[in-house]
């Protein structure tokens, strides 16, 4: 495209004319590791996620299959590769095999793990690696059950960003999720579940 | 059409006179601004080092602006390395053509859109329509504005001027939805049903960008409803239009902005959904990605040493919600896709101070400074307003103001002239005083009394009083 390359040169020339000579240096704030007790950090994540109307349950590793069986009883559950077989045993699961978008909408729920979770905001982060699947999986079914291990919870946004550096460098997409889909566009009344999953369940595995 | 563009169709005082008459809109805005303002203070108070984060945010933006060419070239290289394509657009027309050509190359006539002010700025929807391509807005508020053939009135909540009853009527007529109540949940469900099929089947999506990371080629969209995720992941082709000032150097630099933006904007700790993607991901999401880098006046703002910091803006809308002028006049009075205090400095600058109507915007402020206090990236809006007033005034012709000022200087320079003028004013004001106040001055002076009363001149001036008192003593 000829026009585009002319435009590129023009814009870069105008920028260089506008900024010539000044090179402000950037001093970044260091990411300080949190000094708060782990238990407080994990508890705050659970509290804040719940404030955004995620359904949060704290469980032990061995309780997971039983809780999942109750939570997903009678539902067709879509699962990405990489989840422990023990979790899936009591469920009616279908592995992701590249189903079309229309096929994905026939599932009642999706079950995933996450890459990190953030206490100060109540956010779970998916990097769509093993156990999390492609982005459409956690978007189209109406319920998302996300399993978070307590040791994945970090205190602050800067800590999470640091923890996700490797995923970003590897070119992986990220999805940050804080509660289920919501809108406040009509008279500022909050409504859950406009387009994404209407229900977000978080199972927080606390081995402590 | 939601595509409002930059050019106001009339000067701010004229537009504001019209919008001020809309009592409904003022009620909605007072409620909205008041609610978000209060919530925002709580959200900000939770963060112990908020001021440090603001400083960091401002400093990252300044660094980017000081080395913009370098960062854009790095972004371009990174996006290409990740399988995306990068295009450059000097102005709105060029960006419109680029998008339309990319859509036409897919042989489709329907696209879905994520809410994006940059595409509203370039009036993309109308341009696509002229090429036979229909763009559907998928953000609930943008959809409402589009269906109503209205314009957005707020950066964050574009349909804040509409009531639930109006939205129900709109959805009944335009979507054929059978709505039993005007409960927001029912209305949102109608939008969900209407858009679901489009999300699952439309081949091309168009978005803006909140941030883009130069060294990794990562683009970011911050949203709430999930319509963004739908558009960004389900279609085959994704076209993102991004103002050149949105680039950040490195991944670590996203951290302060993910702290600053949600709390300043929706007053939440975090917005429900944020998507990050780097070029294309095999087997996941669109397999064709185009990033359009838009100038459209930004390099002119960059060239202005004082005005430049306007480009730090992250479009959070905190300044709108604290502005007494915005709260009363409403977003439509600003006549541009950028309303409120940020619009008052950004719009005239993007138009190179050459648009007569946009040039009235730096006066749409009481200079109270609330916008500066609220701005998460510390844009000194009041200072830039005053600076722009100074830049714009010399362009003004014929200069009645300067004649009046010269006359006043002549009068004030000599005590006897001043006293004479006061006497003259006291005698002359007679017919103008009604119920102890001057409510309307004649001719050009009427500007002074159009929105306030003038106290009448007293029967006796202080000087006369002083002379009389002292005569008695001496």
Task: Describe the structure in your own words.
Chain B: This is Iron-sulfur cluster-binding protein. Chain B: InterPro entries: 4Fe4S_Fe-S-bd, 4Fe4S_Fe_S_CS, FTHF_cligase-like_sf, Helical_ferredxn, LUD_dom, LutB/LldF, LutB_C, NagB/RpiA_transferase-like. Chain B: Keywords: 4Fe-4S, Electron transport, Iron, Iron-sulfur, Metal-binding, Repeat, Transport. The complex is a heterodimer of chains A (208) and B (474). With 208 residues, chain A is of the alpha/beta class. Chain A has helices spanning 2-19, 38-51, 64-71, 85-88, 101-104, 157-163, 165-169; strands spanning 55-59, 77-79, 93-95, 109-113, 116-118, 123-126, 143-149, 153-154, 174-177, 182-183, 191-192, 199-205. Chain A contains 7 helices and 12 strands. The longest helix of chain A has 18 residues, at 2-19. The N and C termini of chain A lie far apart (60 Å). The model of chain A has no long low-confidence stretch (mean pLDDT 94). Chain B is built from 22 helices and 12 strands. A 6-stranded parallel beta sheet of chain B has the order 1-10-7-4-2-3, sandwiched between helices. A 4-stranded mixed beta sheet of chain B has the order 8-5-6-9. In chain B, strand 11 and strand 12 form a beta hairpin. The termini of chain B are far apart. The mean pLDDT of chain B is 92. The interface between A and B is large, with 73 and 99 residues.
